[in-house]
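Hi Y.,

Following your request, here is the sequence exactly as I used it, all 119 residues.
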Amino acid sequence: MQRGSGKAKVRRIYDAPDPDDGLRVLVDRLWPRGLSKDEARVDEWPKSVTPSTELRRWYHGPDGEYEEFCRRYEAELAEPAAAEALDKLRALASKGPLTLLTAAKDPDRSHTSVLRRLL
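Below is the corresponding structure, written out as tokens. Let me know if you'd prefer a different format.
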């Protein structure tokens, strides 16, 4: 399953790598369960652009709401380390195909949609 817009596309990490993926960037804080590093073929893993553990837990908890999650996540991405890593991703995306990889079951309602929009 691929979702793309402009500079970056989003794929589930469990999908087989595709020759058109270009640079493969894991954008989850935790390594995906049951997947070896060889199988994943990840080129970059910038943990500073992933949602914080606290935000992730809040979103998946009883009070989590997608629009508020997006707002809080964008605030996290404005922090210096995350902003620097996001700028690096933008630079990489300007050089060629970039695929954001996630284990999220619904990438359209996850942090990857925010990242893709900001790229």
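The two ends are 20 Å apart (CA to CA).

Thanks again,
Q.
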